[in-house]
Amino acid sequence: MSERHRFKQTDILEARLAEEATRLREKAKSLPPGAAREELLRKARQAETGSHISEWLRSPGLQPPK
Questions:
Q1: Confidence of residue 7 (pLDDT cuts 50, 70, 90)
Q2: Burial class (CB in 10 A: 0-12, 13-18, 19+), 41
Q3: Is residue 18 within 8 Å of residue 51, measured between CB atoms?
Q4: How far apart (Å, rounded) are the C-alpha atoms in residues 41 and 35?
Q5: CA angle 15, 20, 21 (to 5 degrees)
Q6: Are 15 and 54 in contact (CB under 8 A)?
Q7: Distance of CA 33 to CAs 36, 41, 48, 53, Å?
Q8: SS3 14
């Protein structure tokens, strides 16, 4: 049975998702209008949304259910 190789993330999830969104937007700028560009922009929006949701879940104002 093979062993899983794990590594510790050095950056928080929100930062990695925001960086990925920026990278995808820059890549989309270099493409002509079309399906490939729209796909990259969609993925960038998803990464930003994920970053916002993760940030919201980690916020101190969020209370656990009682």
A1: confident
A2: middle
A3: yes
A4: 10
A5: 100
A6: no
A7: 8, 11, 21, 29
A8: helix
